[in-house]
Automatic annotation (TrEMBL):
Domain Carbohydrate kinase FGGY N-terminal span(s) in chain numbering: 4-249
Coiled-coil residues: none
Protein name per its UniProtKB record: FGGY family carbohydrate kinase
Domain of life the protein comes from: Bacteria
One term of GO molecular function: kinase activity
Organism listed in the record: Luteolibacter flavescens
Record-stated family: Belongs to the FGGY kinase family.
Swiss-Prot/TrEMBL keywords: Kinase, Transferase
Domain Carbohydrate kinase FGGY C-terminal: 322-439
InterPro entries: ATPase_NBD (IPR043129), Carb_kinase_FGGY (IPR000577), FGGY_C (IPR018485), FGGY_Carb_Kinase (IPR050406), FGGY_N (IPR018484)
PANTHER family referenced in this protein's UniProt entry, alphabetically: SUGAR KINASE, XYLULOSE KINASE
């Protein structure tokens, strides 16, 4: 039996086939889609019709690889990166290109919404999160103010994943993991915010899709698509969800207290909880996960950039970087690197730049630079880990989304003070979408398969990557973390960071 995942990415659409019996990915394919060109700086838009074409192309490639096994396809899941807005008219025609979550054109509208509700603290009190420029909330207000004709034509507003789900099934709907990314959802209470929608326009509530349970299908794959793709009748389509929710599922974080360190480019530190853990300091966002729980997410914009900077500078391979890292002592002989090369989300320093502090004639060596870059990144995760503890989490270990090498895993364990291990294979949110489809399918057919059960079945930990913390080094890094945060606060207060 196979379950398919579809991910509408920023540059391409990907499709994967999960062989449930073998617990492996049986096939995968990618089809690119283009940006709308000639837009002002900060605008990032795409034609949703190009997603349909790309999804169809990638799906056919995957099914061709499956061959006769395509007859065992039972369900499809969908995901997409956070944010974005698709606008349809009353005849379900696309009104304009879709704005994506990385589009910053609605920054002024996000600020306008914040002012109306007492700034970020007021929005956190109201809904659990501030409103981001890439959210459907800010982009909807932008549409009303900048393109009133298009706004008047608008009858449906959807996230990218819900648009594809609508195309697959003809059924409109949104589940909490997607709704939580719109900026219009009261995440702790899992309901739409009437105050926010009324502020934007009284029509907004009627434009949004109806809610779907995370345990119920969105609908069945349209018969025309079943015939076109050579699939059996009755293939279910799962409700879909945001990338953060399904990426957590794909690394096995489906139970209360699970913590995941995502070491990819747009990294994060995520914790799953049975109760909403709202960060009133505004550093962590709160989302809904795929299983009916909540995710507290600390974004880490520089999860790999600091390491890549040093590797690129010296022309090192991963093995050479690892060797340089292990050849130096903890603390890099006094060299301290603040790795905010792209600004930072946690701590909230959107305009920060990187800082190399404590340079002497003796410590400015390739090995110490490798050590300082790795420690700067690990301490950044350590700061996020300390904030999770402030919010009531007491993790006994941390799952890592990819194997970053034994030296860096040991460094993370020493900073966190708990064991660290990576998953054997990480399929990201795309694999999570296929896993969601499997849970929904079995639930629909009377089998009480849980998200934690499928996570335990599909996701295995790579025991060879496990590293336990050294108590003395943990104490050392706690002191170094305090020093790093003092330096951050001092430089930021002085306008230098």
């Amino acid at each position: 039996m196979h379950f398919l995942g579809i991910e509408i990415g920023h540059a391409a659409t990907r499709v994967v086939a999960l062989d449930l019996e073998a617990a492996t990915v049986a096939a995968e394919a990618t089809a690119a889609h283009a940006w709308v060109e000639g837009l002002p700086d900060g605008y990032r838009e795409q034609d949703p019709a190009s997603w349909i074409s790309a999804a169809d192309h990638a799906m056919r490639q995957v099914l061709e690889t499956l061959g006769d096994a395509r007859g065992g396809v039972a369900g499809i899941g969908i995901t997409a990166p956070t944010g974005g807005m698709v606008v349809l008219d009353e005849n379900n025609r696309i009104v304009r290109p879709a704005k994506l979550g990385i589009d910053r054109s609605a920054q002024r509208q996000a600020e306008e919404i914040a002012r109306a509700f007492g700034g970020a603290p007021g929005l956190i009190e109201l809904c659990g999160n501030p409103v981001d420029a890439g959210s459907l909330a800010a982009q909807c207000l932008w549409l009303k103010q900048h393109e009133p004709y298009h706004f008047q034509r608008a009858a449906r507003l959807m996230t990218p994943q819900d648009f594809i789900g609508y195309w697959l099934t003809g059924e409109s709907g949104i589940e909490a993991g997607s709704a939580a990314t719109t900026g219009l959802f009261n995440v702790p209470q899992r309901k739409w915010s009437g105050e926010l929608m009324e502020f934007i326009d009284s029509r907004v509530f009627d434009m949004l899709p109806p809610g779907i349970s995370p345990l119920q299908p969105r609908g069945q794959l349209r018969p025309g698509l079943c015939r076109s793709w050579g699939l059996p009748d009755g293939v279910i389509v799962a409700p879909g969800s945001g990338a953060a929710a399904l990426a957590a599922l794909a690394v096995g974080a489906a139970g209360n207290g699970s913590v995941v360190a995502d070491l990819y480019a747009d990294g994060s530190l995520c914790a799953i909880s049975d109760r909403p853990a709202v960060d009133f300091q505004g550093e962590a966002s709160i989302l809904c996960d795929a299983s009916g729980r909540w995710i507290t997410r600390m974004g880490m914009a520089n999860a790999v950039s600091a390491l890549e900077l040093v590797r690129r500078h010296y022309g090192w391979s991963n093995a050479e970087y690892e060797k340089a890292l292990t050849s130096t002592e903890a603390g890099a002989n006094g060299l301290l690197f603040l790795p905010y090369l792209r600004g930072e989300i946690t701590p909230r320093l959107p305009d920060a730049t990187g800082v190399l502090h404590g340079v002497t004639l003796d410590n400015f060596t390739p090995g110490n630079l490798a050590r300082a870059s790795a420690e700067g990144l690990a301490l950044g995760f350590g700061y996020g880990f300390s904030r999770l503890r402030d919010l009531g989490f007491e993790p006994s270990g941390v799952r890592v989304s990819r194997d970053a090498g034994p030296a860096f895993h040991q460094l993370l364990a020493d900073v966190f003070g708990v064991p660290v291990a990576s998953v054997a294979v990480s399929g990201g949110s795309l694999l999570g979408a296929a896993m969601q489809a499997a849970v929904v399918y079995f639930r629909l057919n009377g089998e009480s398969l849980g998200f934690d059960e499928i996570a335990g079945y599909i996701v295995t930990m790579d025991d060879a990557t496990r590293r336990d913390p050294d108590p003395q080094r943990h104490e050392f890094y706690q002191d170094l973390l305090a020093r790093q945060q003092y330096l951050v606060e001092t430089l930021h207060a002085g306008g230098f960071l």
